Amino acid sequence: MPTLADVVQELESLYDPRWAESWDAVGLVCGDPSAEVRKILFAVDPVAAVADEALDWGADLIVTHHPLYLRGTTSVAATTFKGRLVHTLIKNDVGLFTAHTNADVADPGVSDALARAVGLTGPLVPLQPAADDPRRGLGRIGSLPEPVPLAEFARRAADGLPATAGGLRVAGDPDRPIRRVAVSGGAGDSLLGAARAAGVDVFLTADLRHHPASEFVEAGGPALIDAAHWATEWPWLADAARRLTSASAARGITVETRVSETVTDAWNTTAKCEDFT
Ligand SMILES: [Zn+2]
Question: InterPro entries, from UniProt (predicted)?
Answer without folding.
Answer: DUF34/NIF3, DUF34/NIF3_sf
